[in-house]
Amino acid sequence: MGSEALEITPALAIPEAELVERFVRASGAGGQNVNKVSTAVELRFDLAASPSLPEPVRARLLAKRDRRITDAGVLVIDAQRFRTQDRNRQDARERLAAFIATGLAAPRKRIATKPTHGSKLRRLDAKRGRSEIKRGRSTKGDTD
């Protein structure tokens, strides 16, 4: 575990001190390797209290309804895809970087548009057609 930072973009990097890693035993198939060796990684990153994240990025990430974010604003990533601890650690860091990268771009404002004249006519024609179909189903005037 070096002191290098996790680089998201050239302008944004997360220091090693802000990442908390815990190595645990993986679940699932794998036999003795899974039962004996703690290869799975639980990576924790405190989004709410991180001084490395710009405020708009932090707000966008915390606003996401992601099940990996706790009520306290801590992002928890479990990585157990691979057999080795080092590869799972690398996988968890890549997933953290990808998650933070999703919050970097501000969403574009939606430009309100009005329906075209043709689309209004098609909608009204469809409504008239449905009305005719339903009117034809009525039993008024039918004698059996």
UniProtKB/TrEMBL annotation:
Which superkingdom? Bacteria
Name the residue ranges with Basic and acidic residues bias. 122-144
Q: Which UniProt keywords apply?
A: Hydrolase
By its UniProt entry, which SUPFAM superfamilies does this protein fall under?
Answer: Peptidyl-tRNA hydrolase domain-like
| PROSITE patterns associated with the record | RF_PROK_I
Annotated spans, Disordered: 108-144
EC number(s) per UniProt?
3.1.1.29
The reply on keyword Ligase is no
Q: Which InterPro entries match?
A: Pep_chain_release_fac_I
Which GO terms fall under molecular function for this chain's record?
Answer: peptidyl-tRNA hydrolase activity
Q: Coiled-coil intervals in this record? A: none
Residue spans with biased composition (Basic residues)?
A: 108-121
Where does the Prokaryotic-type class I peptide chain release factors domain start and stop, copy by copy? 25-41
Designated name of the protein: Aminoacyl-tRNA hydrolase
- Which species is the source of this protein? Pseudoxanthomonas gei
Query: Where is the organism placed in the taxonomic lineage, from the top?
Result: Bacteria, Pseudomonadati, Pseudomonadota, Gammaproteobacteria, Lysobacterales
